[in-house]
Amino acid sequence: MEFLLPRDRQEALELMAGRPGTVPVAGGTDVMVGWNMSRGLPARALDLSRLGHLSRRRYGEGRYRLGANTTYSTLTDELRGELPGLAAAAGAVGSRQIRNRGTLGGSLGSAWPAADAHPALLACRAEVELASVRGSRRVPVREFFSGPGRTAREGDELIEAVLLPRPEGPQLFTKVGRKAVATLATCSFAVALWPSTRQVLTGVGGADRPAPAAVAEAFLAGQLAAHGTWESGERLPDEVVRHFGELAAEGAVLGDDVRATAEYRRRALSVLARRSLAQAWENYRTERHRCA
Amino acid sequence: MRMNLTVNGERHMLEEVRESESLLFVLRERVGLPGTKNACEQGRCGSCSVLLDGMLCCSCLVPAVQARECSVTTVEGLAGQGGPGEEDGPDSVQRAFLDAGAVQCGFCTPGMLLAAHNLLRHTPDPQEAEVRQALAGNICRCTGYQHIVEAVLLAAEYRRAERGALVQPDGAP
């Protein structure tokens, strides 16, 4: 195995070009699990850890741009106020040891279905910025996870940043695991409210791939529009909240594995979705009253 | 490949490090410091915890290559960092582990010590809940954790006492 050690952005992109199958490594917390378990080494890996531009963060025009090497610890320790949904998900990742090394870009690249950041990125309208010698492009995270373990990243591309709009309302992340902390998600759910566009966006973790609960979102959007609930700020009827939870679980492609059965996941997911929506909407109503 | 690594203040030039090796492997097999333990190799047990450039991490999940030119603190580097008069002895966290009976088989202890050390550096006076949270990534299969949590709280007390000793109002040493 060869470990490529680029000194800057240009060199990194050039090394990636024409070397298909090269595995970019940021914090190593995902890829090293595979290497340690001798699941086969790639022919080539490329070290991202010394590329300064991947650690930069900035805010402008209503949007945060987080370099791909932003760690979960940075999200929990420094961005909890600015990006509450993503910070909550970051805080649910593994242990302090893992959060110190694990990065947003790495998580997107390995695309593990149970990764905690993904549902939050989906609900929070994130975009992924990819770069290669051919140029840069942005992919909405909703289009980024193209299949189980697969992403929209081309073989010569590097994930350079994640872009997130400033939150407009409550953002929540919840998960079920086999332990209270330092555990992989059996399933997880994120929700974010976007009053300006009248949207409640979601993300589901623990299914075959990270995906929004699209049917549940559409159902809720219809209900809120039909009853003018965004404007009135009224409580959501129990049956709407319950049905939202059921739809969120039904829409996910769930499987059996060592952590749980598909049936367990379906039950847990419907509960997580129901509770998250109820809590997020309640927070929204309260916030609205305080501002009015 | 060849790389430089500073471990507990001592600089090492390492030859023929394989690209797929972990920092944990390098510490144990090349530098010859077996205090850092190898258990799960998946980042779940915390027994391989070290400070890499001051940051707590699982050394099993750090490609050795990424630690080139870096500085690592392992459990072997903790002793001698105690308070006044104990430059050669165990540091305050190690002392507290001994005094609280927090060590049984001892396999998780090096990782626990590093995690505790890291907590107290950032949060000198932690609540019990903060201690449990900080040790969440370190698994112990013997003690049931109670004595370990007590040890960390005791270590915080020792350090408070040490700080007090250093700032005697009358200027006494």
From TrEMBL, chain A:
<dbReference type="InterPro" id="IPR016166">
    <property type="entry name" value="FAD-bd_PCMH"/>
</dbReference>
<dbReference type="InterPro" id="IPR051312">
    <property type="entry name" value="Diverse_Substr_Oxidored"/>
</dbReference>
<dbReference type="GO" id="GO:0071949">
    <property type="term" value="F:FAD binding"/>
</dbReference>
<keyword id="KW-0560">Oxidoreductase</keyword>
<dbReference type="InterPro" id="IPR036683">
    <property type="entry name" value="CO_DH_flav_C_dom_sf"/>
</dbReference>
<keyword id="KW-0285">Flavoprotein</keyword>
<dbReference type="Pfam" id="PF00941">
    <property type="entry name" value="FAD_binding_5"/>
</dbReference>
<dbReference type="InterPro" id="IPR036318">
    <property type="entry name" value="FAD-bd_PCMH-like_sf"/>
</dbReference>
<dbReference type="InterPro" id="IPR005107">
    <property type="entry name" value="CO_DH_flav_C"/>
</dbReference>
<dbReference type="InterPro" id="IPR002346">
    <property type="entry name" value="Mopterin_DH_FAD-bd"/>
</dbReference>
<dbReference type="GO" id="GO:0016491">
    <property type="term" value="F:oxidoreductase activity"/>
</dbReference>
<keyword id="KW-0274">FAD</keyword>
<dbReference type="InterPro" id="IPR016169">
    <property type="entry name" value="FAD-bd_PCMH_sub2"/>
</dbReference>
<protein>
    <submittedName>
        <fullName>Xanthine dehydrogenase family protein subunit M</fullName>
    </submittedName>
</protein>
TrEMBL record, chain B:
<dbReference type="InterPro" id="IPR001041">
    <property type="entry name" value="2Fe-2S_ferredoxin-type"/>
</dbReference>
<dbReference type="InterPro" id="IPR036884">
    <property type="entry name" value="2Fe-2S-bd_dom_sf"/>
</dbReference>
<dbReference type="InterPro" id="IPR006058">
    <property type="entry name" value="2Fe2S_fd_BS"/>
</dbReference>
<keyword id="KW-0411">Iron-sulfur</keyword>
<dbReference type="Pfam" id="PF00111">
    <property type="entry name" value="Fer2"/>
</dbReference>
<dbReference type="GO" id="GO:0051537">
    <property type="term" value="F:2 iron, 2 sulfur cluster binding"/>
</dbReference>
<dbReference type="GO" id="GO:0046872">
    <property type="term" value="F:metal ion binding"/>
</dbReference>
<dbReference type="InterPro" id="IPR012675">
    <property type="entry name" value="Beta-grasp_dom_sf"/>
</dbReference>
<dbReference type="InterPro" id="IPR051452">
    <property type="entry name" value="Diverse_Oxidoreductases"/>
</dbReference>
<protein>
    <submittedName>
        <fullName>(2Fe-2S)-binding protein</fullName>
    </submittedName>
</protein>
<keyword id="KW-0560">Oxidoreductase</keyword>
<keyword id="KW-0408">Iron</keyword>
<dbReference type="InterPro" id="IPR036010">
    <property type="entry name" value="2Fe-2S_ferredoxin-like_sf"/>
</dbReference>
<dbReference type="GO" id="GO:0016491">
    <property type="term" value="F:oxidoreductase activity"/>
</dbReference>
<keyword id="KW-0479">Metal-binding</keyword>
<dbReference type="InterPro" id="IPR002888">
    <property type="entry name" value="2Fe-2S-bd"/>
</dbReference>
<dbReference type="Pfam" id="PF01799">
    <property type="entry name" value="Fer2_2"/>
</dbReference>
<keyword id="KW-0001">2Fe-2S</keyword>
<feature type="domain" description="2Fe-2S ferredoxin-type">
    <location>
        <begin position="1"/>
        <end position="78"/>
    </location>
</feature>
